[in-house]
Write the structure tokens for this entry.
Amino acid sequence: MKTITLTPDASGMVDWPTLSNDKKSVVTIGSFDGMHQGHQAVIRRVAELAEQEQAFSVVVLFDPRPALVHAYAAKHDGQEPPAGTPDTQALTSVDERLRAIDAIGVDYTLIVRYTMAFAAKSYRFFLGQMVGKLGMRTLVLGSDAAMGANRAGNVKAIENLALATGVFQLEVVDDFGPGLTRVPVNAKPVMPSEPGEPSDPLEGASKAERRAWSKKHQAKEVRTWSSTNVRYLLSQGRIKNADAILGHAHAVEGTVVHGEERGRTIGFPTANLSENVAGYLPVDGVYAGWLVDLGEKSADGGEEAGEKPADGVSQQYDASSVNARVAMQSPHRWPAAISIGTKPTFNEDGDAERVVEAYAITDDWLDLYGHQARVEFAGFLRPQIKFDSADDLVVELKRNVEETKRLAA
């Protein structure tokens, strides 16, 4: 797969590349946060059609997420978030999305910096650019996609445009999965109060009970296969439900840093991630999952160290080294008991920052300081609680390790 980074000018215009003078393209467009099963279905269809039509398969990927840009602008008089603004609601980093897109077999991913000026362009103008510059002959979208100024370019409007112009075809992929569900508006993270994976509060509920719950929580209807639903499930500790929608284990990535090293003193040394974690952090609690060593952070000024490729330059994307480390049989992967929270047993003031630490279940001593690490979540074990003593904590940690061995086997 080749990647091209594109930044709109002040007026929102993008200098789209010419991929070929004669070969056409099958295109899809979006932020694809989480790369859940609905996203995968859309992008797989792009690859399938491109192969059938002997065309390029192209994903136009927005970064940062449009939701972040519009939310920031709404609070800052129309200004855009400065480069590097943390997106705590993003399920996945751009690099993780690229790895997933590459695995499907896409030819090109165009990473477009999403700006307010770019967002103000009409969907007709935008799609005209896709046809004229990228040679788009087929556009593939999910069933509730919308684009352009005021999101006026919904599936129906785009279908009418395709039929009226005859220059491209629209293919709509059924990406609804199990259908619809309800998610509370402005849902806040709520740590489960009991051990074990939380259940669906609406499981087995009657229609009247569902209506009452929806009214109480001001719930809105969303697709079950949606980033909004995944984010909500993770915020409630419902890891297995979230992973089922994603089609893979939810994960966060970061740099391993020195912590307070209390875990080492009680026989449970942990890998502590820096505060700049990529990926959505589930609600506080103890989880079963995996720790993956992604290797030392690049020191040569390469892309891993934060350098961005030049705008408009086609780069060959290569995730082979990361994929080898993430693979299930990799020697760089270990089952892990994972803690997210403020370490209440040792937090006397009650104002400590949230930390992510993973205890790898291995007989080997792991020196991962300065390495990039990936933490994957398989299930919720228990809430964070304050123990009376370090000895009581050790007893519980041993129990968590055994549960982790079972869940992350």
Notes: The first strand starts at residue 2 and ends at 6. The longest helix spans residues 390-407.
